[in-house]
Sequence to fold (724 residues):
Amino acid sequence: MKKILVCALLVLAMSATAFGAAFKIGGTGPLTGGAAIYGTAAMRGAQIAAEEINAMNIDVKFDLRYEDDTHDAEKAVNAYNALKDWGMQISLGSVTSKPAEATAAENFADRIFALTPSASSAAVTEGKDNVFQMCFVDPNQGTASAQYIGEKKLAKKVAVIWKNDDVYSKGVRDTFVENAGKHGLEIVSETAFADGNDTDFSVQLTDAKNKGAELVFLPMYYQPASLILAQAQAMGYAPKWFGIDGMDGILTMEGFDKSLAEGVMLLTPFNADAKDEKTQKFVKKYQEKFGEIPNQFAADGYDCVYAYCQALTQAKATPDMSAEDLCGKMIEQFTTMTFNGVTGDNVRWMKNGEVTKDPKGMVIKNGAYVGLD
Amino acid sequence: MTMRRLINLKRAEARKIYLTYAVVIVAYIVCQVMSSTKFLSSSMRGMLVPICAYMVMAVSLNLVVGILGELSLGHAGFMSVGAFSGVATAILLQGVIPFAPVRLAIAMIVAAIFAAFAGFIIGIPVLRLKGDYLAIVTLAFGEIIKSILNNFYMGIDSQGIQMSMLSDTTRLLPGGKLIIRGPMGISGIQKIATFPAGAILLIIALMIVFNLVNSRSGRAFMAIRDDRIAAESIGLDITKYKMMAFVMSAALAGAAGALFAMNYSTIVANKFDFNTSILILVFVVLGGQGNMLGGIIAAAVLTILPEKLRSFSEYRMLLYAIVLIVMMLATNNAEIKEFLSRLNPFRRKEA
Fold:
């Protein structure tokens, strides 16, 4: 009985691959653990895109598979290898930075093309010709933020609170501090926190307040940011707040008082309230399917699959091609093509894998994002 | 030296040691052949080196927990000291020694020395404590090592090696390269760790531990474990022997850390947290305290298991926990033990 079952499954599996003729596209991301919100979002975004494309009347079809890496480099490589055994032809890399660095090295060695939705550390693409990013690289966010604050004359005296055991936070903070002077900003207070002491920010906030900071820059994810906003209000400190793309998601956070985020500015490539047709379609689908508003990670995942669709169509690639052949074709396409997605128009990629698109300045008004410009 | 000691041992113990070596060597040959004939999946091939590293970790922790009888909850700390010092050494030597295996060997030796030193420094206060107190303090030291490495910066330029703490104030000259970057750890590591290197390290670790256990010092360790007061009363220097086992264990963990780190292109201090320490302790407890072969097998099984459970997606963690509980109960069940010992041809002769 068992044998028959196994045989039947095998036949089924084989026929599916034979007649399905889809590109096997795989990615790893944290689907469990502390960073699960990012991995799950990116995976869901990619799923929606793959479903949409598979329903279209075009030659490109996708067979998408995500594996859990629990935001750990070792597990990410294991997950990557599992995907390789499955027959992955093109890769979505990893969702978070450190795991992505580890899998990108494998992608490079195996000649499997990768386009990561949201791994933003510069080391992910460094020295690898076949690893590309859909999101801004961390240092760019710091530079862009400093430039934005300086050019718009939002403040002169700036405080920075950052997480000193986090790659993302550090990457942004470093270039922000480096470039602040250039744009006429004076950093009056710079304080840090780490895993384990990320619940009480009175020391950092008092320092910023006493030194007269008019604007506080928060290069971090939204959980600690939400606590900072709440504690600042409790101590009666009301500077301008400026965040980066990790701040996206603060409005959908459970139990968060939205009025606290009133007036918070952030630079993010994706805005779920944008009025264009593409974004609205995506947001509607996502809400129907998963019951929440998609964040920037979901949008990045969504765009990755569409970018692949465009590149594969233009390259006239077929699913029977080997990963290595596809890799060559994808490098050619991604370095020359222009892509329009939900995270920005006129998206282009440089030879080193970094993306160029305009960051959008957003401000939170009445519990929703509104464009700053 | 090894041989004579083994011959002098009781036959049952010698058999156990030979069996351990035999299992390791046979397993190595089988995996190597399967790997080179592409019979092994990429997933398994990718896990060979980390499994070797975890096996060495299990053997080294077994020396402290099983033989010396002290619970250490910060073993991953030594692994991270080894990982960072070993990788940094390998990067510094990149231009000097182009032959990767030699560079790997030197990196592992340097890693062992650094970890041993860390073990010695930590051992001074820790080993004066006993039981639960010792366990909790080792836990704290594991976390301290993690915090230090998360705030440590090291780079090299024409002026030599530059270091700084808390923030990057190394001020490298143009052309300099920052190697350890605080929370960002080390990036762009050349993957020079290989399965044969891992197997050799494991055999060396086993030789060191078996030799130590079956020596005068080893008997002292066990005397301290079994009855500290009696051991003290016959004039054994408790602190000295504890220190010896602790430092040796830290050194092996350091070498394993270097091997582990050089199997990935990137490494961060947060990887070696409390969870990793506990994972290694689970290997030791599941394999049987003081039982090297058991620990080695447990390390392999518990590393492969989560990967084999991938097909269960979200239920994976739950299943892993259940399997772990079942295994713990089963290996401690008298009837199952009896059944297993009947299967073992060596044991039967003994009885």
Remarks:
- The two ends of chain A are 67 Å apart (CA to CA).
- Chain A has two domains: 21-136+277-356, 139-268.
- The longest strand of chain A covers residues 186-193.
